[in-house]
Specification:
251 residues; alpha/beta; Rossmann fold; seven-stranded parallel beta sheet; binds NADP nicotinamide-adenine-dinucleotide phosphate
């Protein structure tokens, strides 16, 4: 059966776990050859490869810390070897230190920026030459990019910077036929969410203030990303699309 990403090449950073994992599977379901990148957790990488094999999907994993120069160059080398052309680049990998702003050291802030901001830019800049008309770059930001989430000063700052950077990507790359957008999910229960301080409190507040009455799931986010890869989304350029059951509607 003809699917809209048949024969297309997709790269998903952080593609073996959480939201990125759901995106890798959803895009592979659409016929894509997916390269799911991850830092160090081999078990999750093996699990998604096994699941893909069972379901007849094409997902290969590539290991490497994108925030570490030498490791980054190795990942880039592998990608350059296997991909002549890239159709979809999804940046889902992120990490960060959870502290109040006045407790953040330079080192912690720089480390968080290395993975959430600089690695995104390096990879985009190094791969954009392989992208052309009809291709897409999709980033994942968070409500913390524009608002306060307790203890989220470091990650929130990287997301705010990412949103600014993506506006420029969108403006500069649209004339080349490359569509750039960001997706901004509300709280999604992943390993990263589990690491949030006061998760219980946040979870209750999120549910209390979400008009749809339910949490956003990795699959919800993956379906939105999938839509952004279709022809129907070709005129959506430079947007941050919120997917949170309506939570951010409330003042
Ligand atoms: N969960 C939420 O509530 C939520 C809400 C809004 C936005 N987001 C955003 O959604 C995206 C995905 O979040 P998630 O919750 O799915 O995260 P997650 O479950 O923690 O997964 C993070 C992924 O990124 C990879 N990664 C982390 N540091 C890396 C590095 N230095 N180099 C290469 N890969 C690295 C991890 O690889 P390993 O498995 O090897 O560690 C893993 O595959 C992030 O951009 C996050 O900020 C999440």
């Amino acid at each position: 059966m003809m699917k809209h990403l048949n024969g297309k090449t997709v790269i998903v950073t952080g593609g073996t776990r959480g939201i990125g994992r759901a995106i890798s599977l959803a895009l592979a379901e659409c016929g894509a050859n997916v390269y799911a990148l991850y830092a160090r957790n081999r078990k999750n990488a093996e699990t998604i490869e096994k699941e893909a094999e069972k379901r007849g999907l094409n997902i290969r994993t590539i290991r490497g810390d994108l925030a570490h120069e030498e490791s980054y160059q190795q990942v880039l080398g592998q990608l350059e070897e296997v991909c002549n052309h890239i159709d979809i680049l999804v940046h889902s990998a992120a990490s960060g230190v959870h502290r109040n702003s006045m407790e953040l050291s330079d080192r912690q802030l720089k480390w968080t920026f290395e993975i959430n901001f600089f690695a995104v830019h390096r990879l985009t800049r190094d791969l954009v030459g392989k992208m052309g008309k009809g291709s897409r770059i999709i980033g994942i930001t968070s409500p913390g990019g524009t608002r306060v989430i307790p203890s989220y000063a470091a990650v929130g700052s990287t997301k705010g910077a990412l949103e600014a950077l993506f506006r420029h990507y969108a403006f500069e790359l649209a004339p080349l036929g490359i569509g750039v957008n960001l997706v901004s999910p509300g709280l999604v229960m992943t390993d990263a969410a589990e690491a949030l301080p006061e998760l219980g409190k946040m979870l209750n507040m999120t549910l209390d203030y979400t008009p749809s009455g339910k949490l956003t799931t990795p699959d919800d986010v993956a379906m939105l990303v999938k839509f952004l890869t279709t022809d129907a989304a070709s005129q959506i350029i430079g947007q941050t699309i919120v997917i949170d059951g309506g939570k951010t509607l409330l003042a």
